[in-house]
Amino acid sequence: MAKDSPAGVPMTLEPLVTRVLAPNASPYTYTGTQTHIVGIDDVAIIDPGPADAAHHEALMTVIAARPVVAIVITHHHRDHSPGARALKEATGAPIVGAAPFALSDDGPRADDAFDPDYAPDRVMAEGDSVSGTGWTLTAIATPGHTKNHLAFALPETRALFSGDHVMGWSTSVVSPPDGDMTDYMASLEKLIGRDDRVYYPGHGPEIDRPERLVRGMLGHRKQREGQILRLLGEAPRAIPAMVERMYAGLDPRLFGAAERSVLAHLIDLERRGLVAADGEAWRAVAA
Fold it and tell me: Locate the Metallo-beta-lactamase domain: which residues (predicted)?
């Protein structure tokens, strides 16, 4: 596992993949957003990050005089896609990947806000590919963190660029209404059926035992689900009261994210007929 480089310093992860960290560290982005440059003779840029001049210059230095085949976007959050516009202007490359998505949210955001100006030249769906000399990136639909989230497989080396669906430092924020726990769990199950050698996430170190991690993430989410059902089996509760019981010692800056995650679980459980809302409180539904 490669150690993190400082922001702006390129790190070669394998001959076809170079990583450059953006200078946007936060409680929700860890050390920052990781942009991946794929290719040798010509390249694709995956998730160019925020609209940050220093990060843009770092990417242009790594690209040098090489042609850029595509600027590839996993999803439309402001820490992933805004840098695409300056790169497109500088290189002439098309912006491809996740579909644009407009949303009126129903509560406070617990992660980076949407990029309202994201406008891809080509929307990619499951199985769509973009390719260059000696490399191919194939879209894998992985909704959950956002409705439009895509991962990208590099079959030449059995690598997967997992965006924010699977990260190397934390579980993903799933914040309704754009985040969907039902979709997120299904997308994790989908990845277990693949034979990827390594994941390169949008945040945190690369993941060299991906199936083991994904199974652990599924188990973690099912444990959270079990906690919710046990708490509501005792008495109806509002979400803040559940978070206080479920997340002892949580960094107060992450309390909002935990509330959104619990809400996502409750919506999933409601669809399955296991819980119901009574005003601000939730209750278990008798079998």
Answer: 31-203
Which residue, 171, 197, 218, sits at the end of a domain?
Answer: 218
Collapse the DSSP code of 139 into the 3-class scheme (helix H, G, I; strand E, B; otherwise coil) and give the result.
strand
Residues 148 and 240 in one domain: no
pLDDT one-digit tens code per residue, 10-49: 999 999 999 999 998 887 778 889 999 999 999 999 999 9
Domain that holds residue 165: 11-218
Rg (CA), the chain: 19
By residue count, the chain amounts to: 287
Q: Are residues 200 and 277 in the same domain?
A: no
- Residues 43, 110, single domain; the answer is yes
Nearest 5 degrees, angle CA 250-CA 256-CA 260? 110
Q: How far apart are CA 205 and CA 37, in angstroms?
A: 16
The pair of structure tokens assigned to 236 is 């109806």
**What one-letter code names the amino acid at 56?**
H
Whether residue 177 is preceded by a cis peptide bond, meaning omega within 30 degrees of 0, is yes
**With contact defined as beta carbons under 8 Å apart, do 258 and 247 qualify?**
yes
